[in-house]
Specification:
This protein is mostly helical. The protein is 89% helix and 0% strand. The protein contains three helices and no strands.
Length: 79
C-alpha cells in the first residue's frame, strides 16, 4: 500500500510530537539519541513548536480580552 502525501506529513508530525514529549521527560540529549535525530533538527522543531504555542496563547488571550470587553459593554447597556 502506497502512502499518500497527507499520511506522510501526519506521520512526520507524530514523530516530532513524540520526540518533543520524550524530551520533556528525559531531556533533549536522550530524545535525540533514542529517536536518531540531530540536536540541530530537534531544536528547530522545538523552536517552531514554542513559537506556535506562543502564537496560540496570544490569540486566545486576545479573544478572551475582546469577549470581556463585549460582555462589559452589554452589561453597561442594560443599566
Amino acid at each position: 500500500m502506497k502512502k499518500t502525501i497527507e499520511i506522510e506529513k501526519y506521520l512526520q508530525y507524530r514523530k516530532k510530537i513524540r520526540v518533543l514529549k520524550y524530551a520533556q521527560d528525559f531531556g533533549a540529549r536522550d530524545a535525540c539519541e533514542t529517536f536518531g535525530v540531530t540536536k540541530t533538527t530537534f531544536y528547530n522543531w522545538k523552536n517552531k513548536f514554542d513559537k506556535y504555542v506562543r502564537k496560540v496563547c496570544r490569540e486566545r488571550s486576545e479573544i478572551q480580552r475582546h469577549t470581556e470587553i463585549d460582555l462589559t459593554l452589554k452589561l453597561l447597556n442594560l443599566f
